[in-house]
Amino acid sequence: MKTLTFKTHSSASVKAYLGRNMADIPAEFPEIFGAADQTCLVTGTDAPPSLRARALALFPEGKKPRTYFWLPPSEKAKTLEESGKLASFLFKHGLSRNSLIIAAGGGAVTDLAGFTASVYMRGIKWISVPTTFLAQIDAGLGGKTAVNLGSAKNIIGAFHQPELAVCDTAFLDSLPHSELRSGGGELAKYAMIGPASLRRAVEKNLSGTLAGDKAALTACVSACAAYKLKVAAADERDETGRRETLNFGHTAGHAFESLSGGRLPHGEAVARGIRFALILSAEKGLLGRADLKYLDGLVDALRLPPAASVRKDFRKFLALISRDKKARGASNRFILLKGPGRPVPAEDINPAPLKKAFEGALK
Length: 363
Ligand SMILES: NC(=O)c1ccc[n+]([C@@H]2O[C@H](COP(=O)([O-])OP(=O)(O)OC[C@H]3O[C@@H](n4cnc5c(N)ncnc54)[C@H](O)[C@@H]3O)[C@@H](O)[C@H]2O)c1
Prior knowledge:
Blueprint: E1 2-7, E2 13-19, H1 25-28, H2 30-33, E3 39-44, H3 49-57, E4 67-71, H4 80-92, E5 100-105, H5 107-119, E6 125-130, H6 133-139, E7 144-149, E8 152-159, E9 164-168, H7 177-193, H8 196-210, H9 214-234, H10 250-259, H11 266-283, H12 289-300, H13 314-322, E10 333-337, E11 343-347, H14 351-361
Parallel strand pairs: 2-9, 3-4, 3-5, 5-6, 6-9
Antiparallel strand pairs: 1-2, 7-8, 10-11
Nicotinamide-adenine-dinucleotide (NAD) is lined by residues 44, 46-48, 51, 73-75, 78, 105-109, 111, 131-132, 134-135, 138-139, 142, 144, 153-154, 171, 174-175, 179, 182, 266-267.
């Protein structure tokens, strides 16, 4: 087991506990659990029974969460209505400002539970227990929480750091191949924007992670979680441009998710958004042919299934990207690449290269 801690500018810390088959978390972090008068475990109805059992195994007898709340599957959980239901449940069961929410699930669960923790009684503490590969390398870390507004992703949200992120790779044993591949989308993102050492770690372990190899998954969780926390701590509120680089592939990716009516898994949408950003980077003359070929090869390695669920409606796509919360008044704004590990923002891009990238990404 290892604990990663990074100090933020506000001198708070961002912390993650990494390992496999963890037990008795409260004994490891008495400063967090000792002060809590009650804990509530939040998880998804579609999670396998083993997930709940593993989540409960993190707590010894006598210290297990007293109440449980079940969220609807995946993206259906990320609504204001569900957040309201959770808040009502917490209130009904007497959770106070000194209580603790434990969010055990994929990114949809950690986003919704973290968001509710940010507003319930003006903010209570929460622990993130990401249980998908994607959430252990990304969504469950860094304190961005959100719900969707209709088909628009993550429009209502808050920065609310979990006291701790617990990444136990034993959760990943029950993940289906499709969820490993979805995590591969965010994994590819790190290889594109991160330093050479991170790119090497991803390249070495990419095929192993897709095959569910435990050592490969552990190596990637360790390397990517450390990078994500470092970036999130350096620019906690997304103000300096550092954290925005983590959005690589996401502006188009979120639009593809919307155009699929929520049927395209998040990580697959990001992988297609990465392909979009790579083509656009080349069209804008930022990325050379050889780099494009090399980086696109990493997306190829994910062996994405056809994006049949995505409506190929370019006008709707333009409308979605102009309303992306990162656009900041521009008609569109993207993170593009000048080369491996060299992300750069670009905005107000004309429709012609956008159309070429849109068509190329959905081929
Ligand atoms: N807050 C952030 O910084 C951030 C970053 C990236 C993504 N996200 C969000 O994360 C969400 C995607 O997260 P996700 O990919 O984890 O998807 P998800 O939360 O929808 O989970 C995918 C599926 O995996 C199941 N599952 C979870 N753990 C499992 C396990 N151990 N074994 C078997 N099945 C399991 C879930 O029940 C669900 O059916 C999106 O809403 C995205 O917007 C947030």
